[in-house]
């Protein structure tokens, strides 16, 4: 099983770096596919996110500090929301969490499909309290289904706040740093964390993140949008096949 976890970590890390996601949107379905329960998959996924999001954000910030402007306030809200995720996971059924996961992926597909890869206007200046509220809601929901939150945050940034798709994914990965640490703390407190499995996946993901970010910087924005939609559709099909 260790070899399988290392392999999944490598794949998830690349996806995390390339798409600016925590990796849970692909890791959770794959873990369920190889035999883990939804709650076990969520725990492993969250621990992996701590590794990949910190390393990935460090690589992104070396190129641009723009993600810090709104990212810190959204991240603080996400930290607060993520702290409640352990309670939700402990009291909600596996099947209900899977339905919620599917709904979030559908939302992301629809919003990104109808949004331009490059905005016609500059990003809108947002109220700090609004940014923190958005982060809180995303952190609460995302950590409860084992994703970092980028899958929800990216379509909001692109569709409502005029962010370019690439900048939105960089900010989304930065957000995952906050939400995943909060989620890790909450699940550990509630006795839901799988430390050994999460460690193997997390360590392997670091290699994948490095090459994923390098690949993202080589892709044109319009092509990048198609890749994101393809990823989301693939995850949706995989998750539906394991739920219904």
TrEMBL record:
Keywords: Cell membrane, Membrane, Transmembrane, Transmembrane helix. Belongs to the 4-toluene sulfonate uptake permease (TSUP) (TC 2.A.102) family. It is a multi-pass membrane protein. It is found in: Cell membrane; Membrane. The chain crosses the membrane at residues 6-34, 41-59, 71-90, 97-116, 128-158, 170-192, 198-215. Coiled coil: none annotated. Pfam families: TauE. InterPro entries: TM_pro_TauE-like (IPR002781), TSUP/Inactive_protease-like (IPR051598). Its main location: membrane. It comes from the Bacteria. The lineage of its organism: Bacteria, Pseudomonadati, Campylobacterota, Epsilonproteobacteria, Campylobacterales. One of its GO terms (cellular component) is plasma membrane. This is Probable membrane transporter protein.
